[in-house]
Automatic annotation (TrEMBL):
Gene3D superfamilies: MetI-like (1.10.3720.10). Residues 95-299 form the ABC transmembrane type-1 domain. GO terms for cellular component: plasma membrane. It is a multi-pass membrane protein. GO terms for molecular function: dipeptide transmembrane transporter activity. The chain crosses the membrane at residues 9-29, 99-122, 134-156, 176-196, 239-260, 280-306. Its main location: membrane. The keyword Membrane applies. Belongs to the binding-protein-dependent transport system permease family. It is found in: Cell membrane. The keyword 4Fe-4S does not apply. This is Peptide/nickel transport system permease protein.
Length: 313
């Protein structure tokens, strides 16, 4: 297992380097006169040149990248070009909002999708048909349309939850819960649909195995067969799908935070990308990639524990 984890970590580090190089290269292609944007169009050219030099933008792109990489390895991502705010501090201020959504969606998706998928795979019938229809709708309907319908129904018409805004748990736990409920529901629908369908299919396949019939012949209670033997063997494919769904949630958070007016990393990404604030953008890209690598590592470890054959793949 240790060599399995070390291989995944080494691959993750290599991926980080490649993505950082590609990202910096792409951000360097469109030449943006940052000094002119900061000082205004009426500023003298010598002042603009001095500002660009102070930011290190007068050097070749490769030199800029190597300087950035050396500082990033030490944990220094610099300061924002436009706000002069420390990059790590700016992200840390917004990260709790996005983490609230990600953790909430992951928990809701894991619990509901496994319950629905196992129930549909074991019982079939009405629940099975519901899961299949729900999966089709969850995949087919655009995320922004589902989000807008949820806002219109639960926030505008029923007035059960606020349509926009965010309140931290330190201010009011109930207020925080009310502000993240609709965003979590919006992000969870598609994830639940995909994972529940995968769990259902895996449970049906496992239930057809010879060892399950043997366990039934030995007189084991149905609940023990399902939750002790079937669920474990059916969980590996579902965990892989759950990990991929989490990666997709990072993109969905950008849309949801914009619609609900949440001051998270998603809305921050839109704001600073439109400005062309490279230090912020590079840090966001790196932390996103690190998050994806860690999630995939955890999923790989769990799958390797559930299915030892996967460790040598």
């Amino acid at each position: 297992m240790l060599s399995f984890i070390l291989r995944r970590i080494a691959a993750g580090v290599a991926l980080l380097f490649v993505i950082s190089l590609l990202s910096y290269t792409l951000l360097s292609i469109p030449h943006i006169d940052v000094g002119r944007q900061l000082l205004g169009h009426g500023a003298a050219q010598d002042l603009v040149d001095a500002k660009n030099a102070a930011l290190g933008l007068d050097r070749p792109a490769l030199v800029q990248y190597l300087d950035w990489l050396g500082a990033a390895v030490r944990g220094d991502f610099g300061t924002s070009w436009f706000t002069s705010e420390n990059v790590l501090r700016a992200i840390a201020n917004r990260l709790p909002v996005t983490l609230s959504l990600m953790i909430g969606v992951t928990l809701v998706t894991a619990v509901l999708s496994f319950l629905l998928g196992v129930w549909a795979g074991v019982r079939r019938g009405a629940v099975d048909r519901f899961v299949q229809v729900f999966a089709v709708l969850g995949y087919a309907l655009p995320g922004f349309l589902v989000t807008l319908v949820i806002v219109l129904v639960f926030a505008v018409r029923l007035n059960w939850f606020p349509a926009i805004g965010y309140m931290g748990p330190s201010q009011s736990f109930t207020g925080w819960l009310s502000t993240v409920t609709l965003p979590v529901i919006s992000l969870s629908i598609g994830s639940i649909a995909g994972v529940a369908q995968q769990v259902r299919g895996s449970v049906i396949d496992v239930m057809r195995q010879d060892y399950v019939r043997t366990l039934r012949a030995r007189g084991l209670p149905p609940w023990r067969i399902v939750f002790v033997h079937v669920v474990r063997n059916a969980s590996a494919p579902a965990l892989a799908v759950l990990g991929m769904q989490f990666v997709g949630l990072l993109g969905g958070a950008v849309l949801v935070e914009q619609i609900f007016g949440l001051p998270g990393v998603g809305s921050m990404t839109v704001t600073y990308t439109t400005r062309g604030d490279v230090p912020i953008i590079m840090a966001l890209v790196m932390f996103t990639v690190i998050g994806v690598i860690l999630i995939n590592l955890v999923v790989d470890i769990l799958i390797g524990w559930l299915n030892p054959k996967a460790r040598i793949a």
